[in-house]
Amino acid sequence: MEPSAQPILDVRNLSVAFNSGPRQITPVRDVSFSIYPGQTVALVGESGCGKSVTALSILRLIPSPPGRVVQGTVGFGGRDLLSLPEPEMRGVRGGKIAMIFQEPMTSLNPVYSIGEQIAEAIVLHQRVKTAQAYEIAEQALRDVGIADPARRLQEYPHVLSGGMRQRVMIAMALSCRPQLLIADEPTTALDVTIQAQILELLRKLQRETGMAILLITHDLGVVAENADVVNVMYASRIVESAAVEDLFDRPMHPYTAGLFRSVPKLGARAERLAAIPGTVPNPAQFPGGCKFHPRCARARELAARAAAEATTEIMSDGESFRVPRRCASEEPLLREMEPRHWAACHQVAGYDEKPPTEPRIEHKRASVVQVDGEVTA
Amino acid sequence: MSQVPANGRPLLEVDDLRTYFPVRRGVFLRTVGHVKAVDGVSFSIQPGRTLGLVGESGCGKSTVGRTLLRLIPATSGSVRYKGEDFFSYRGEELRKLRRQMQIVFQDPVSSLNPRMTVGNIIGEPMQVHGLASGSGRDEMVAGLLERVGLDPAYVTRYPHEFSGGQRQRIGIARALALNPNFIVCDEAVSALDVSIQSQILNLLGDLQKERGIAYLFIAHNLAVVEHISDDVAVMYLGRIVEQASARDLYSNPKHPYTMALLSAVPELNPRPRRRRIVLPGEVPSAVNPPGGCPFHPRCHLTRQAASDADATETAEITVGGTKLRVLRRCAEEMPVLEQKQAEPGHCAACWVTK
Amino acid sequence: MTSSTATSVMTGAKAPAARPRSLMAIVLRDTVSQLGARLAVAWIGLLILGAVFGPFIANSFPLIARVDGRWESPMWRYLVPTDVVLLVVFIATIILCGVRQMTVPVKVGIVIWLLALVIPLALWAVLARDLSWYRHEYGTGLVVISLGVAFGLDLAVLVLVPLKLPLSSRQWTILGLFAAALTGILVLHPVKPPTTIIYDQYRELGRAGRMQFSLPAPVPYSPTDRLRDQPDAQLLAPDTRHWMGTEINGADVFSRMIHASRVALAIGFIATGIAIVAGCAVGGVMGYFSGRVDMLGMRLLEIFEAIPTLFLLISCVAFFGRSLYLVMVIIGLTSWSGYARFVRAEFLRLRNQDFVLAAIAAGLPLRSVLFRHMLPNGLVPVLVSASFGVASAILSESVLSFLGLGLIDEPSWGDLLNQATGQGGTFTWWLAVFPGLAIFLTVFSYNLIGEALRDALDPKLRDGASD
């Protein structure tokens, strides 16, 4: 990868709001990240953290009303997708940026054959004849490792298994040679052996086509093995953004560190898991200050050692304890604590010396998973 | 069938359990075939211990849990609870015995009756079984809520007011209400966020230590199963293909399917060390499973073995349009679950591994 | 400040401070919060008021009169048992709704309940021995008023107190049977209207100058008062005396309209009630046991669905004579198949829901599994379709009356509509417009309510609103 390449996608200060009855909730706030050509960038977080809404708003797919982008830009090919006229946006969607979804069972239309569905997208975006579109579709199915693609084109979605449908979705997404693929929890609904097939397929296709991937997932293992750059989201914000090796070697944000500790790992039999206390906050009721402070182990530890006037008492889940006053009152912003490593936490050493900046990380991972066996289905 | 050697009497013994679902067609619902969801499963669980049951979706692991609690009728086989034949119980006796065997479900949304308050959800079973009533009941419900980490003031609330993790705690409190000896955890943490999953796993572990409850822990997440289980059984297409203590199974898998499963779990490491075995194809349909060893069309070990073996001992099969050579025995004969030499109690159903 | 926000977040509840509400309560609130549904509920409420207070609103007999120097309230004497039952039930319901928050300690509650049972019985014993004061100079009216109010209150107590007590279902049944029997005795015995009714007697008295004072009902005509004392009263166009004109026999249309709301409501609710009970029973059994039972049940449903309701109604009316109850039963028994399908589908779904399995695994008896855990969750689509069912039952009755096969002497909207086109081909507009409008509004209202209920219950809309 050339060192001075321009990012293919540049999301700056994106905020999305939803009207919910009389109130307004903000599931995405001030989110910035970049994706360079050929890069896999992960957005990782738990339910309700805003990762899927971020992905949908890049393609302007959030239902509006009640949702709307209140702030920010999405730079793609030198233009802001958020201000593009709708007809041009339709050309981008499915053409230059494709998306695959979590639920392969519902994302294919059951009344049309596989061929009709793929060919429709190809005819629309590449301006070719139907017969030619079928040829491209057949090749696309072959590319995603589906055996006997000519016969599969005639079949209807209900005869396919979950893994097969996800392959068809990927084939459909890639049939127009997109520059960016947004994969929203692409393997969550699949079994672990099928997940391995699909992820290997995505890696292979990325090597061959050089497309960039925005990988949205809650599975830290999937992130560790596939991403180049990781953005950890918690309660509407990116709290940590780093190259994958740096993040897993030295997590800075207490949430990231807590997540790593709380996941059971194969081959490491621990008596108890180091759980993060409390519940995942609901977008309608985010706490003030740093949104993680009611669950933060580091904040509690520091407050126990700090002077009383620097701390404040809070109630969380029926439990009362002290945290640093600053954590409860002031929202931390992302700062570059080390090269290629941004974090948003008041309590990281040296946080105050650094200025708040928006992360841009151009990095490609060194190692990939070694695979035995072929990935055809 | 072979069993893990027992030290003392097992709490639960499952022998050759089969659950077939008829496939019906037409106006008069003629049976045209069977889905063999569970096809000859045997295991036993000691008091206060955990047996993990892993496998991919459709392998029948949830059906095992539901069949042995008699939520689904078994086609054949037996379940002995404390030495007594649970399947022979009827009516009132059955209701009384159900008390001791409970279940925690996967989906925190559908597992709680949306029309009942938390107090009634937990308290009704107690009342029906005469464990407590009136103010005694309220006290016990409050105590249980506190034990599972919820505010006792929540008794008057309805399930829709809680988050997924909290609902799962309510589900656990309901299972505990009858003071059971045995709980089936059917994907009990699979639907939860990572940070909540570890809380619930810790809670389940603590409860086991306090009350000596035995678990049948059904899950597809291998790391979670390894963390909580003493023994583990791996299922494929309605059968147990490998069974061993958790330590043995994870450090030294004997069945090729277990090997592939373990290698497929993503590592929490940006520099992955394991080599991944990618299985070709998908899990076959349980209506019409392959003959011989049901795993042979996807098995990497039999293909390797066939390439080294004499041509008379191999057979050619077609999988998804490509021709493969496998051992003739794998394609024709069903392997039985047998002791592999390595460790005591480590069984696998495979012709290739020794 | 910070701590308070943190608290509300971490409890995970959507409404931390408010009293916990059941899903049903929220659904009802959402239903009624829509403007259309509100108007519809208002219209149905108006009909209920008309049905309950019909005799007070439209009556040929004055509410209070002074005849020959004696005060009396003749209206009360002509109340039929149905009028009284409706009145008592209405009052009891209002009181019940008003004091729902009240709780009573068990012992106090039982004492109150026994008193409420014993006092009226004692009173009744005294009254039955000496009925001479029944003809008191203040007239029967006041006696009946006071007795009615007393018994109404008593009944309310009888119903209320047990509701506040933690009782088992068997005790509940016993109390309920007691209360029902008592209601029967209390209400039916003293209410004995005269068999021959002379509607114009008070108008005669007025004309003869024997009435010193009279407070007439707002509409001073009974629905069956054919104004025999007035010549040419038939088919009068609306004017200030007859706001909606008179019909073919000379009865006041407005009065008939008000009294007909009772038939409209009863036919809708009772016919739909029968259909729901039958549908839930059959559908529930089919869904829970499935397999062969389900297969036979489906064939039964298909047979019932093949019966043309209107033709059955017409032939039954031709054979067995005209009866409101017959019509209700027939409509009910031919329209349950839709509900049965809904309940069956719901039960098939619910049977595999984890909370139902959990109830079975907890060793709960079948009764509890079916009625406490499954039925309340399966009733949702039934409720929605019931509101449409009520509307269609009203239409069926109107059609029957319009065809001239309705009730003979009971006022009904369809019957009025029927009269709009006379034998000679004449068209009487006020006999078409007013009942037509009433039918339209009622059916429309039920449809609006059904629509609102469906929206409120739709989980997609619900999620969209909350997340």
Short description:
The complex is a heterotrimer of chains A (377), B (354) and C (467). By secondary structure, chain A is an alpha/beta fold.
Structural class given helices, strands, pairing of chain B?
Answer: alpha/beta
- How many strands of chain A? 15
Structural class by helix and strand composition of chain A? alpha/beta
Shape of chain B: globular
Radius of gyration of chain B (Å): 22 Å
In the predicted model, the low-confidence regions of chain A spanning at least 5 consecutive residues are: none
Helix content of chain A: 25-40%
Mean pLDDT of chain A: 86
Question: Approximately how much helix is present in the residues of chain B?
Answer: 25-40%
| Total beta strands of chain B | 15
Side-by-side strand order of the widest sheet of chain A: 6-7-8-3-9-10-14-13
Low-confidence stretches of chain B: 1-6
The mean pLDDT of chain B is 86
Q: Major β-sheet of chain B, in short?
A: 8 strands, mixed
Beta fraction of chain A: 15-25%
- Beta-strand proportion of chain B: 25-35%
Count interface residues per chain for the largest interface.
A-B, 65 and 56 residues
Distance between the termini of chain B: 18 Å
Question: What oligomeric state is this?
Answer: heterotrimer
Q: Span from first to last CA of chain A? A: 32 Å
Describe the 3D structure.
The complex is a heterotrimer of chains A (377), B (354) and C (467). Helix content of chain A is 31%, strand content 24%. Chain A has helices spanning 51-58, 86-92, 114-126, 130-143, 149-154, 162-174, 192-209, 220-226, 244-249, 254-262, 297-305, 325-329; strands spanning 9-20, 23-35, 40-44, 67-76, 79-80, 97-100, 180-184, 212-217, 229-234, 237-243, 311-316, 319-324, 335-338, 341-343, 370-372. The two termini of chain A are 32 Å apart. Chain B is α/β, with parallel strands linked by helices. In chain B, the strands form 3 sheets. An 8-stranded mixed β-sheet of chain B has the order 6-7-8-3-9-10-15-14, sandwiched between helices. Chain B has a 4-stranded antiparallel β-sheet with strand order 2-1-4-5. Chain C is an all-alpha fold and 467 residues long. Chain C folds into 2 domains: 57-215, no CATH class; 253-459, MetI-like (MetI-like fold), CATH 1.10.3720.10. Chain C is built from 19 helices and 3 strands. A 3-stranded antiparallel β-sheet of chain C has the order 2-1-3. In chain C, a hairpin with a 2-residue loop joins β1 and β2 (70-72). Chain C starts with a helix and ends with a helix. The interface between A and B is large, with 65 and 56 residues.
